[in-house]
Automatic annotation (TrEMBL):
GO cellular component, one term: plasma membrane
Localization in the cell: Cell membrane; Endomembrane system
Name used for this protein in its record: ATP synthase subunit b
Organism: Candidatus Regiella insecticola
Domain of life, source organism: Bacteria
Record keyword Glycoprotein present: no
Keyword Cell membrane assigned: yes
Membrane topology: Single-pass membrane protein
Gene expressing this chain: atpF
Molecular function (Gene Ontology), one example: proton-transporting ATPase activity, rotational mechanism
CDD domains reported for this sequence: ATP-synt_Fo_b
Annotated TM spans: 6-26
Subunit structure and binding partners: F-type ATPases have 2 components, F(1) - the catalytic core - and F(0) - the membrane proton channel. F(1) has five subunits: alpha(3), beta(3), gamma(1), delta(1), epsilon(1). F(0) has four main subunits: a(1), b(2) and c(10-14). The alpha and beta chains form an alternating ring which encloses part of the gamma chain. F(1) is attached to F(0) by a central stalk formed by the gamma and epsilon chains, while a peripheral stalk is formed by the delta and b chains.
Protein family membership: Belongs to the ATPase B chain family.
Coiled-coil features, chain-numbered ranges: 30-104
Length: 158
């Protein structure tokens, strides 16, 4: 066999193989490669969108967290103001109740003092009458009268 004819036959077979591959093998391969490239590009774009969404969500979350902290601070301040107001009201009410109790106690003390004064007056009047009766019953002797008055004074001191 001739070497040139073999090379020429191999070249023709190779050429036919290349045409067959270009017509039947390459289009599905290129299509699969392009499809895969498109899927990868879509996945990358989707990942970038997801990253942007995540960044936006984190920014919103940070903003909402800041708002929540501000609202909590406002609520705490309102609660503290309310606490101070309640304490002030309780102090005022306690002061009023204290004054009322003091006034009631003073009134009771005054009433007891008046009763004691009246009772003491009645006892003094009774003693004076008793002393006068003793003086009248006894003779009009100066020394006897003086001893009677001294005994009445001693009874009053007790």
């Amino acid at each position: 066999m001739n070497l040139n004819a073999t090379i020429l036959g191999q070249a023709i077979a190779f050429f036919l193989f290349v045409i067959f591959c270009m017509k039947y093998v390459w289009p599905p391969l290129i299509e699969a490669i392009e499809k895969r490239q498109k899927e990868i590009a879509d996945s990358i774009a989707s990942a970038e969108r997801a990253k942007k969404d995540l960044d936006l969500a984190q920014a919103n979350m940070t903003e909402q967290l800041q708002k929540a902290k501000e609202q909590a601070q406002v609520i705490i301040e309102q609660a503290n103001k309310r606490k101070v107001q309640i304490l002030e009201n309780a102090k005022v009410e306690a002061e009023q109740e204290r004054k009322k109790i003091i006034m009631q106690a003073q009134a009771e003390i005054d009433a007891d003092r008046k009763r004691a004064y009246e009772e003491l007056r009645k006892q003094i009047a009774g003693l004076a009458i008793a002393g006068a009766e003793r003086i009248i019953n006894c003779s009009v002797n100066e020394t006897v009268n003086r001893t009677l008055v001294d005994t009445m004074v001693a009874e009053l001191e007790q």
